[in-house]
UniProtKB/TrEMBL annotation:
Protein name from the UniProt record: F-box domain-containing protein
InterPro entries noted in UniProt: F-box_dom, F-box_Sdz-33, Zygotic_Embryogenesis-Asso
Pfam families per record: F-box (PF00646), FBA_2 (PF07735)
Superkingdom, natural source: Eukaryota
Domain F-box: start-end pairs: 4-57
PROSITE patterns for this protein: FBOX
């Protein structure tokens, strides 16, 4: 008859030989037992596995088919590109402000094909061609929260394949927004874009809409609900009023202005 032995009561030095006899899968399982077990496992200096191999075994032990979030920020202490390449299904990716441009670009290149939502706190691309290539990724949601947008152009988003684009951290002038609307109206590009949200400087309203759009106002006391074609951070958007426009190819869109102090929130919905 065996008696349970309180392994975690042993001193740290006595536990190290026990760890050395464990297989990698057993070590990973052990770290999940408790906070103390997790901290003790950090004493292992070398197991002989690469970062990507550790990730594979962790996902195997936990039966993890996908990751909810990857947050990349700061300077990597070692080469993690192989590890990133081993990830196959990620819901959200966050690129932080302190991530070097070269590493941020490489991470986005590797991970964009296996994720549906990306938030970037900096734009790591050196020119518009690089930025446009990134925008063509088939994302459900792209959130750009950066003040560095002055190096790029709002018209770059005419080619985006992201369903929803949210731009924050940078305020656009009314003339820039008007030019974007005019270019979209005349565009032949079959973009996947369904919703563009940004902030403008000052009071922008229907007087800023180009005449070529032939915008038709919708009653301000009536609500409409916009449903995205795929599951996003929010399943739908409900708004009042707005201005409807229609291109020659039959594609319809609605423009909504929401004043807020010295700024105006601008939402552009392209009906699927």
């Amino acid at each position: 008859m065996t008696t349970p032995f309180p392994l975690l009561r042993l001193p740290r030095l006595a536990l190290l030989p026990v760890f050395e006899q464990m297989e990698e899968r057993e070590i990973i399982t052990f770290t999940l037992l408790s906070k103390r077990a997790h901290n003790l496992s950090k004493n292992l200096q070398k197991v002989g596995l690469s970062v990507s191999e550790w990730i594979e075994r962790i996902q195997d032990v936990t039966n993890c088919k996908s990751l909810k979030r990857i947050h990349i920020n700061g300077v990597p202490g070692f080469d993690v590109c192989d590890a990133l390449s081993s990830l196959k299904n990620i819901r959200e990716i966050f690129i932080g402000l302190w991530c070097p441009n070269s590493f941020a670009k490489k991470a986005l290149e590797i991970l964009s094909p296996v994720t549906t939502e990306i938030t970037i706190w900096k734009i790591p691309f050196e020119n518009r061609d690089e930025f446009r290539t990134f925008l063509m990724s088939n994302l459900n949601f792209l959130n750009v929260d950066s003040h560095e947008f002055s190096r790029f152009d709002l018209d770059d988003f005419l080619v985006t394949n992201a369903l929803k684009v949210r731009l924050r951290g940078f305020e656009f002038f009314a003339r820039v927004v008007s030019q974007f609307l005019t270019n979209w109206f005349h565009s032949k590009c079959d973009s996947r874009l369904e919703h563009l949200s940004l902030v403008t400087i000052g009071d922008i309203n229907e007087t800023c809409l180009p005449e070529v759009l032939n915008a038709v106002p919708f009653a301000r006391d009536q609500e409409r609900t916009f449903f995205y074609s795929k599951q996003l951070d929010t399943p739908s958007k409900t708004f009042s009023g707005g201005y409807d426009i229609e291109r020659t190819d039959g594609k319809k869109a609605t423009i909504v202005f929401v004043p807020c102090h010295t700024l105006t929130f601008f939402d552009f919905y392209v009906w699927p």
